[in-house]
């Protein structure tokens, strides 16, 4: 009986030829799915101490990292890390933990106003440093590019007094007593916060610039609507700009003829 002997080169050629024939018959491997682009970093990230709370805020990004429009935004992941303000390198070892998982469709733990997200961290202690990091999250749970900032908490300043509000025709006039800052603090001015009566106060002040007088006329109102107002003083303490705890809310209703 005659035996066939295949040389290695011949065997390799036969194998490659068989692969080409099978490929031509439509036997192709399934292509790998393309990864969707990830969101770019949130914009205008900021931290402010308001009374004994930290207000963390950012603007919702509109573009992915490849500059295409975001179409699959699911929300944001907000992380927090405590650090010693005396530490020269608080970011050397990132020990951040997830503070809030924010759903953009049902933002129960934040306020969203004019494409800006506001989160109040109420678990804040003077003398501790707070490092925050936030990243946009796709609906599939993938995080985009993060952004971070830090701020050391200090003892809150005192609260202004004497806030009063009176309704007029399409305007509410507010007044208050001059605020005396604590020794070592420098008074910079005041912020007025507004909300609908019975509801939460907006996290962004009504005034675009710090108020240096003890009065303010709010023209951004409608007659017949009940509004509530709160006042905070703003002081400079060392390198920190600090807002006081808010005053008790006062209400007013603008009416024609008043």
- Return the average pLDDT rounded to an integer: 89
Secondary-structure-derived class? mainly beta
What is the straight-line distance between the termini?
A: 119 Å
Number of helices: 1
The counted number of beta strands is: 15
Low-confidence stretches at least 5 residues in length (pLDDT < 50)?
Answer: 1-6, 10-14
Q: What percent of residues are in strands?
A: 35-45%
Order of helices and strands: HEEEEEEEEEEEEEEE
Shape: flat
Into which percent range does the helicity of residues fall? under 10%
Number of domains: 2
State Rg. 29 Å
State the fourth-level CATH superfamily of the largest domain.
Answer: Immunoglobulins
> Which second-level CATH architecture of the largest domain applies?
Sandwich
CATH first level of the largest domain: Mainly Beta
**Major beta sheet summary:** 8 strands, mixed
CATH topology of the largest domain: Immunoglobulin-like
List the helices and strands and how they pair.
Elements: H1 8-24, E1 43-50, E2 53-59, E3 73-83, E4 97-103, E5 111-113, E6 116-121, E7 129-138, E8 147-152, E9 164-168, E10 171-175, E11 186-196, E12 215-218, E13 227-237, E14 240-243, E15 250-252
Parallel strand pairs: 1-14
Antiparallel strand pairs: 1-2, 2-6, 3-4, 3-7, 5-6, 7-8, 9-10, 10-12, 11-13, 13-14, 13-15
What does this entry look like structurally?
With 258 residues, the protein is mainly β. The protein folds into two domains: 43-152, Immunoglobulin-like; 164-252, Immunoglobulins (Immunoglobulin-like, Sandwich), CATH 2.60.40. 7% of the residues lie in helices and 39% in strands. The protein is built from one helix and 15 strands. The protein has one helix at residues 8-24, and strands at residues 43-50, 53-59, 73-83, 97-103, 111-113, 116-121, 129-138, 147-152, 164-168, 171-175, 186-196, 215-218, 227-237, 240-243, 250-252. The strands form three sheets. Strands 1, 2, 5, 6, 11, 13, 14 and 15 form an eight-stranded mixed beta sheet that branches. A four-stranded antiparallel beta sheet has the order 4-3-7-8, with no helix packed on it. β7 (129-138) and β8 (147-152) form a beta hairpin. The protein is flat, with a radius of gyration of 29 Å. The relative contact order is 0.16. Residues 1-6 and 10-14 have low confidence and may be disordered.
């Amino acid at each position: 009986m005659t035996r066939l002997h295949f040389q290695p080169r011949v065997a390799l050629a036969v194998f490659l030829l068989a692969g080409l024939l099978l490929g031509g018959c439509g036997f192709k491997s399934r292509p790998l799915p393309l990864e969707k682009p990830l969101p770019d970093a949130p914009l205008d990230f900021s931290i402010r101490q308001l009374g004994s709370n930290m207000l963390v805020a950012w603007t919702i990004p509109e573009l992915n990292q490849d500059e295409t429009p975001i179409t699959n935004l699911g929300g944001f992941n907000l992380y927090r890390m405590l650090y010693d303000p005396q530490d020269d390198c608080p970011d050397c070892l990132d020990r951040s933990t997830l503070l809030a998982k924010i759903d953009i469709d049902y933002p129960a733990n934040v306020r969203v106003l004019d494409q800006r997200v506001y989160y109040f961290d109420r678990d804040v202690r003077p003398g501790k440093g707070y490092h925050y990091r936030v990243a946009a999250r796709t609906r599939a749970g993938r995080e985009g590019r993060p952004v971070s900032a830090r701020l050391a908490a200090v003892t809150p300043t005192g609260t202004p007094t004497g806030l009063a509000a009176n309704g007029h025709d399409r305007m509410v006039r507010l007044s208050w007593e001059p605020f005396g800052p604590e020794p070592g603090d420098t008074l910079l001015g005041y912020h007025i916060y507004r909300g609908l009566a019975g509801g939460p106060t907006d996290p962004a002040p009504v005034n675009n610039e710090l108020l240096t007088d003890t009065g303010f006329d709010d023209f951004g109102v409608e007659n017949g609507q009940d509004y509530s107002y709160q006042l905070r003083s703003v002081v400079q303490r060392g390198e920190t700009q600090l807002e006081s705890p808010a005053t008790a809310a006062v209400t007013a209703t603008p009416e024609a003829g008043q």
